Design the sequence.
């Protein structure tokens, strides 16, 4: 991979075997686990890789170092897709120090049956490690998105090693748009921790950064303000674009019919609509769109005195990630006791700055003239 610096070498791996990242996110284009060698008077390896690729990673390190041995393994994040190789590294390079913070080593003792105390180099916020020409300064980034996370800055080449920050789904041998899969990754995995990401962005703003090296996805070497601005929008829960995400469940097609009527009216007025059938869509895509656009419509049936399971799961995904600053319209269906709208409303009670659109559409079994009138009013209220 083109690094934009002669002293830093990419030694990560691509994973095309994985079907679900973190056991839940569909990754059709695979995943990259990034690792980097900083080659100086002393050599630091930045993070390890997933267990299934440890041999490939160690071979990459050997190839990059051409007979030299690393002095340090810097562990920025203990999630197993990055830390699984630590044990193998420690056995292969017994003289090397493992660099982490106090919380890193607590987690290391939980993951591995090995005493790292003679190898551990514990660092604190703002502390530096000199490699020669390059000096790494460590900044703690707790809950972005685990408590032990730290990032590292190399002033010599103006590189921010950003841990899971600025990461995306997708292996590095696949060409695809950055924003789409970075957004789905961000809201799925980091989304709850907006305040902590904001704190990290403020620290990063004080640095002169030319290159961002994340643990997933490509190394970012140009237009850095574009990526930083997107992270600022996402982590402050502001809508990124104008548009309406419409998420629905439908058992016999009646709720779907109402939804399609609404979508037709919105699109006729030039409104961008992202439509998701929650039983069939990738749930993470629906979550991504709900955070991307400024308006949301939820349409579901009353089911077992509650709401349809896919809708319940979807709303929980939103609220547990701090969903806020949005307008929401509701469509409910019920043959004898419609209560879906009331239940959905209650699910957002603790959410900040949510404006519920005045018109609620209530379908009693099937769409009729009265329902069409309600849809017309809902569309007008969403557009205004």
Sequence:
């Amino acid at each position: 991979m083109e690094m934009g610096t002669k002293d830093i070498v990419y030694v990560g791996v691509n994973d095309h075997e994985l079907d679900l990242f973190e056991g839940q996110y569909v990754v059709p284009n695979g995943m990259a686990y990034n690792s980097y060698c900083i080659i100086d008077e002393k050599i630091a390896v930045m993070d390890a890789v997933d267990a299934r690729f440890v041999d490939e990673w160690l071979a990459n390190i050997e190839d990059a170092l051409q007979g030299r041995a690393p002095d340090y393994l810097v562990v920025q994040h203990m999630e197993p897709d990055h830390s699984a190789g630590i044990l193998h590294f420690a056995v292969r390079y017994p003289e090397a120090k493992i660099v982490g913070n106090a919380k890193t080593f607590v987690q290391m003792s939980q993951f591995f049956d090995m005493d790292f105390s003679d190898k551990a180099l514990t660092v604190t916020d703002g502390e530096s490690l000199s490699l020669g020409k390059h000096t790494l300064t460590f900044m703690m980034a707790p809950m972005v998105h685990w408590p032990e996370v730290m990032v590292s800055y190399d002033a010599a080449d103006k590189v921010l090693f950003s841990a899971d920050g600025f990461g995306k789904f997708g292996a590095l041998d696949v060409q695809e748009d950055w924003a789409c899969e970075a957004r789905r990754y961000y809201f799925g995995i980091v989304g709850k921790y907006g305040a902590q990401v904001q704190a990290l962005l403020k620290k990063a703003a004080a640095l002169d950064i030319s290159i961002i090296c994340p643990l997933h996805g490509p190394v970012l070497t140009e237009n850095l303000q574009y990526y930083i601005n997107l992270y600022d929008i996402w982590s402050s829960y502001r809508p990124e674009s104008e548009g309406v995400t419409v998420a629905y469940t439908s058992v016999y097609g009646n709720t779907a019919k109402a939804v399609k009527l609404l979508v037709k009216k919105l699109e006729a007025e030039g409104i961008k609509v992202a439509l998701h059938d929650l039983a069939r869509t990738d749930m993470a895509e629906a979550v991504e769109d709900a955070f991307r656009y400024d308006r949301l419509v939820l349409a579901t049936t009353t089911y077992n005195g509650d709401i349809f399971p896919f809708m319940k799961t979807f709303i929980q995904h939103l609220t547990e990630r701090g969903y806020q600053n949005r307008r929401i319209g509701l469509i409910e269906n019920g043959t004898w006791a419609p209560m879906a709208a009331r239940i959905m409303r209650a699910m957002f009670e603790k959410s900040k700055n949510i404006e519920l659109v005045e018109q609620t559409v209530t379908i009693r079994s099937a769409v009729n003239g009265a329902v069409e009138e309600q849809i017309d009013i809902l569309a007008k209220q969403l557009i205004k």
